[in-house]
Design goal:
With 431 residues, this protein is of the alpha/beta class. The chain contains 14 helices and 15 strands. Strand 5, helix 5 and strand 6 form a beta-alpha-beta unit. The longest helix has 22 residues. Bound molecules: ligand C2E and magnesium ion (2 copies).
């Protein structure tokens, strides 16, 4: 046995071994008899965190052995690293085996009892063509596997050629991010928030834009990719720093700024020092905490709740406002309202779109009104996002929504355009 081809933890093939044995199949022109699979175990990180690495390793070994037992001698199975595995299965066996591959139960002897781990996985699958090399196969199962890994809806994803283009595009964005930060390719745009009573500027949101050589890239394109890479944290601090620098300059110029909110990805909640890190930036620019608000998206899972709550409390102690962004699109909205010391909820723009097929007339109004009343009883502010028409603004006014943000008043403005608003154009005459 060539030990260079064996994964030392599980004793099955490693990547080199998989490529080597797969290449042998390709040389015999047998590759199209197989389907390629990429498997990723869900949440394995938590097993390591909760039970320690020794028990995690044992669970991993048992998982690999359980799967190996399901396979025929000419099928290939390898550990690619961490909790990622690759397989070449005979084509006609995929349907019968897939469910067993996706959920594997193992038992691990802990100190004083045996624990059962149900390891479920996501899979990327690829129907191998006769002309494919092992590189083609590996690239395609990986692309489908990574998509399955990040998909909230699908546990299994079959590779399609269009995914390759998407993958290359996403990889290019991820790979060029750090140099883009170093080259100052990111700029901050400011979208005004408007108080509905007096139609005056009452705050704004900082939104990142990426000016690449010949195009501007919008956050909807790069934020999900950077979130997956974890590099969104670099961007969020970059934006906060740019905002603090601008506020400092405006104050030095004698221009009174408004409170500016910046978006912080939920990924930051893993950072125990998040609050301190944010306060340090404010301190460096000598910015009063009343000028800054931190927006967090609502889609934080339950496991993040405690860190979210702690973060919000620390921010409040120091006078930094926090808000829940896109409220109403995620989970546990009401629990968030009940248990979090948050200052503002930002109603998602989807609340403004009346479903044309609805039988419930005025349903949107009733929901918006109820949320506004409840938030106010709980001492929270409400702002409605995505206001595009006079009708929407008037409706919100009658529902006593205090503030809005949306294209009707202003889209995201460049630094200079926003500075002009701050200096001379704080009143709107739209409704
Ligand atoms: P968001 O925080 O909910 O920001 C509001 C988004 O809605 C912005 O899109 C804004 O341009 C858009 N918008 C504002 N008014 C209207 C309107 O009247 N109609 C419609 N249809 N859209 C409106 P943008 O700038 O493309 O940002 C999209 C999302 O990307 C943001 O949603 C935010 O979640 C995220 N994002 C932006 N910058 C950053 C950042 O620096 N860090 C992080 N973590 N996320 C960011
Ligand atoms: Mg936001
Ligand atoms: Mg939003």
């Amino acid at each position: 046995m060539n030990f260079c081809y064996i994964d030392s933890l599980t004793g099955i093939l490693n990547t080199a071994g998989f490529m080597n044995q797969g290449t042998a199949l390709c040389e015999e022109n047998r590759q199209a008899d197989y389907t390629g699979l990429f498997l990723n175990i869900k949440g394995f990180r938590y097993i390591n965190q909760r039970f320690g690495f020794t028990n995690g390793d044992e669970a991993m070994r048992k998982y690999a052995h359980r799967i190996q037992k399901l396979l025929l001698p000419d099928e290939l199975f390898a550990r690619l690293g961490c909790d990622n595995y690759a397989l070449l299965l005979q084509k006609n066996r995929v349907d019968a085996l897939l469910d067993s591959l996706l959920s594997v139960r193992v038992h691990v002897q802990l100190e004083d009892f045996v624990n059962t781990f149900d390891l479920s996985s996501r899979a990327g699958l690829y129907e191998i063509r006769p002309e494919d090399t092992m590189n083609d196969i590996m690239n395609r199962i990986t692309v489908a596997g990574l998509l399955a890994k990040s998909s909230p809806h699908h546990n299994t994803i079959w590779f399609r050629e269009a995914m390759m283009e998407r993958y290359i595009h996403d990889k290019e964005i991820a790979d060029s991010f750090i140099s883009a930060i170093e080259n100052n390719e990111f700029s901050v745009y400011y979208q005004p928030k408007v108080s509905l009573d007096e139609q005056t500027l009452c705050g704004c949101e900082a939104l990142a834009r990426w000016d690449r050589i010949s195009e501007v890239i919008f956050p909807s394109e790069f934020v999900p990719i950077l979130e997956q890479e974890g590099t969104i944290c670099v961007l969020d601090f970059y934006v906060l720093e740019a905002v603090c620098r601008d506020i400092r300059n405006w104050l030095d110029m004698g221009i009174e700024p408004v409170r500016i909110s910046t978006n912080f990805s939920k990924i930051h909640l893993h950072n125990k020092n998040l609050a301190i890190d944010i306060l340090r930036v404010l301190d460096r620019y000598q910015i009063d905490t009343k000028y800054i608000e931190i927006e967090l998206t609502e889609t934080c899972g339950y496991e993040d709740f405690e860190s979210l709550s702690e973060f919000v409390d620390t921010m409040k102690e120091h006078g930094v406002h926090t808000s829940i962004d896109d409220f109403g699109t995620g989970y546990s909205s009401l629990n968030l309202l009940k248990d979090l010391n948050i200052d503002t909820i930002k109603l998602d723009k989807s609340f403004l779109n009346q479903n044309p097929n609805t039988k419930k007339k005025h349903a949107n109004e009733i929901v918006i009104k109820t949320i506004i009343n409840m938030a106010q009883d709980l001492d929270m502010q409400v702002i409605c996002e995505g206001v595009e028409t006079v009708e929407q603004a008037k409706l919100l006014q009658t529902l006593h929504c205090p503030a809005v943000q949306g294209f009707l008043f202003d889209g995201p403005l460049s630094h200079d355009e926003f500075e002009k608003r701050l200096k001379t154009e704080r009143v709107y005459h739209k409704i």
